[in-house]
Each structure stands twice: as structure tokens, then as C-alpha cells.
Design goal:
Elements: H1 11-19, H2 27-64, H3 72-109, H4 115-118, H5 127-134, H6 137-162, H7 166-170, H8 177-217, H9 222-233, H10 236-257, E1 263-266, E2 271-276, E3 285-291, H11 293-305, E4 308-311, H12 313-322, H13 334-354
Parallel strand pairs: 1-4
Antiparallel strand pairs: 1-2, 2-3
Helix pairs in contact: 2-3, 2-8, 6-8
């Protein structure tokens, strides 16, 4: 029960969570750091960037005055020249953003790469799960408040920067572009930099919240801590034997449940998932599942028990990837499984009538 998890996570549990790619981090910290670094780099390199772009335009106009050289080769040269100058103009900004992003990520989670974090997780591709997490009341309330705060802060900064300069900006009307652009660019850059600093402060608050939320989700109850302590005292050979024994017992219980299933959904060769539905329950339950050799054993046990085997590769793969043994199927699979069970019951009824 969640209310019994009152103890802080042990270092071992934190380390195990990290190995799975579970760490406390805020996307806003990365975004704010990248934005601030990009703006600072743009401020420092803007004159040089304008010179590069101006030079690129001069070269384009020079080639346009000589149509005879703008053949297929000339067009390629033109794009190469323009690309070089544009790249030189924005490379410092892109480099600063890249370094800031790495630094922000390392500052949050450290410099220990975890292969499990980049391993594909098919459960994350489930839109229903994503929507469920998105509309979690606690998460939704915090995200709404954070977005409102961001909007209010940026709006206040813009107002405080622009309103005192309304008369100055009005005086720019009718002036040549050479005089207007620097003034407007300076004002816009000033607003953007102040907004970036405010965004960084909001990101710091978000990081504190994400860390608190992560620590809360990792909390343990006293029994879990006792069991972990006992496991730490055992030799590695005994731990491995216990894991093997637990796996064997779990597999044996799973195989014993196969004859009680209503249907076996197969790939048909690589995956097998046994489903059982009891009247009065909310949804069917996965009572067994396996891949390759274990899938073959499930099918053999089902044949011996007279349980119907139905090939449905997409459904079998989805059930295997998203539902653990002993768990009910998710709501997004209700329709597909209901159709499957209706077919099974219809065939079973026809067989009884024929008998």
C-alpha cells in the first residue's frame, strides 16, 4: 500500500532505479539552460554573424550580375558559399546550446550513462498510458500552475521592458532602417534575456518538485527494507539460487494456470498469451505468457487441456509487451479481446451443439 511506504529509499534501490534509467530530472532545466546560452552567444556573436550574412549576400549578388557562371556547377558553388557563411554565423550559437544542454543534463543526473535509459520501451508508445499520466490530477495541477507562472512572468517582463520605452519606440517611426533595427533588436534581446533568467528560476523550482516526486515514488515500507537487508547479507550463490527457485516456482504456477484459461493468443510461433475471464470481474486477466520455448510449452499445455488457441500476432505481441502475468488487460485492449472471446465462446457453443 502506498500509505505504508514511509521510509526513504535505500542507496541500493536508488542505484537499481538508475540502472533502469529512472532519475530525477526536469526538462525545463535543459530548456532554460539552452535558451539562456543561446541568447548570450547570440549577443556576443551577433556583429560577426551579421558580417558573415552580409558577405554571403554580396557574393550572391555578385554571381547574379554574371548569369553566364550560374550554370549547374555555379549553383552548387553558390549554395556552398552561402552555407559556409550561414554556418559560420550560427555555429557559435549552436555550439553554446549543445554545451549548455550537456551541462544541464549532467548537472541533474551526473555523468554516469545508463544503457537502459536509451533502450526502447514499447510501453511508452502506448498512447492510453501517456494520456493517463498526462491527466494525472497531481501532475496536471502542477504543470498547469507552472505554465501559468511562465506566461505571467514572461508577460510581466515584457511589459516592464516595453512600457517605459513607449515614447522612445514611437519616436523611431519614420527613421531609416539602419537606425531602427539596432534599437528594436536591443530591446527584444533584453526582454529575451530577462525572460530566460526567469525561466531558469522556474526550472529550478520544477527540478526541486521533480526530485521530491521521484523520492516519494521510490519510498519503501519497513518490510521491504528488512528483506533488502537480508538479501545483502546472503552470499551471491545463495541469492542466485533463490532467484532461480523463485523463477521456477513462478513459471510452474503459470503453467498450472494454462488449463484454466479461456483462450491462448499466439504470434503464432514466438509469443503465447493465456487469457481468462471470470463473470463479475472488470476485465480478462493474463494468467500466463511466454516467448519462444516457453510459448511452445504454453501451447502444448493448452492443447492437452482442450483450450482454444487463436493466432492473432498484433494482439499477442501487444499483450505480451504491456500486461504482466496476473494483471487485467488495459482498457484500450477491451474491444479487441472482447471480440476474441466472443469468437471463442461462439465456437465452443457450436461444438457443444454438434456434440
Amino acid at each position: 500500500m502506498a500509505e505504508n511506504k514511509t521510509e526513504k529509499a535505500t542507496p541500493k534501490k536508488k542505484d537499481d532505479a538508475r540502472k533502469k534509467g529512472q532519475v530525477a530530472k526536469s526538462a525545463d532545466v535543459n530548456g532554460a539552460a539552452i535558451l539562456l546560452a543561446g541568447l548570450l552567444a547570440l549577443s556576443a556573436t551577433a556583429p560577426g554573424a551579421l558580417d558573415e550574412i552580409r558577405l554571403a549576400m554580396y557574393q550572391v549578388f555578385d554571381l547574379m550580375q554574371r548569369p553566364e557562371v550560374v550554370d549547374q556547377k555555379g549553383v552548387g558553388t553558390l549554395f556552398w558559399l552561402v552555407g559556409q557563411h550561414v554556418g559560420m554565423a550560427f555555429l557559435p550559437v549552436a555550439g553554446a546550446c549543445f554545451v549548455a544542454g550537456l551541462a544541464a543534463a549532467a548537472g541533474q543526473v551526473g555523468l554516469k550513462p545508463t544503457p537502459a535509459a536509451i533502450k526502447p520501451k514499447f510501453k511508452l508508445l502506448n498512447p492510453a498510458t501517456g494520456i493517463k499520466n498526462l491527466f494525472n490530477p497531481q501532475h496536471l495541477a502542477f504543470e498547469t500552475a507552472k505554465n501559468l507562472l511562465k506566461t505571467a512572468v514572461v508577460g510581466a517582463i515584457a511589459a516592464l521592458a516595453v512600457f517605459p520605452k513607449l515614447d522612445e519606440l514611437a519616436a523611431l517611426v519614420g527613421m531609416p532602417p539602419q537606425a531602427v533595427l539596432p534599437e528594436i533588436a536591443g530591446t527584444v534581446m533584453s526582454i529575451a534575456q530577462r525572460a530566460a533568467v526567469a525561466y531558469l528560476a522556474i526550472a529550478a523550482i520544477d527540478f526541486i518538485y521533480q526530485r521530491w516526486r521521484f523520492e516519494k515514488n521510490l519510498r519503501m515500507d519497513k518490510e521491504e527494507i528488512k528483506q533488502e537487508f537480508k538479501q545483502m547479507q546472503l552470499p551471491a550463490e545463495i541469492k542466485a539460487a533463490q532467484r532461480r527457485r523463485a523463477m521456477e516456482m513462478s513459471r510452474a504456477r503459470m503453467m498450472d494456470a494454462v488449463p484454466t484459461a479461456d483462450v491462448i493468443v499466439t504470434n503464432p510461433t514466438h509469443y503465447s498469451v493465456a487469457l481468462k475471464y471470470e463473470s463479475g470481474t472488470e476485465a480478462p486477466v493474463v494468467v500466463a505468457k511466454g516467448v519462444d520455448n516457453l510459448a511452445f510449452k504454453i501451447r502444448e499445455a493448452a492443447k492437452n487441456a482442450g483450450v482454444m488457441i487463436v493466432p492473432d500476432p498484433p494482439l499477442a505481441r501487444t499483450l505480451y509487451a504491456s500486461v504482466d502475468v496476473g494483471r487485467q488487460i488495459p482498457e484500450e485492449l477491451f474491444h479487441a479481446v472482447a471480440q476474441l472471446l466472443a469468437y471463442v465462446y461462439r465456437v465452443a457453443g457450436t461444438q457443444r451443439s454438434a456434440a
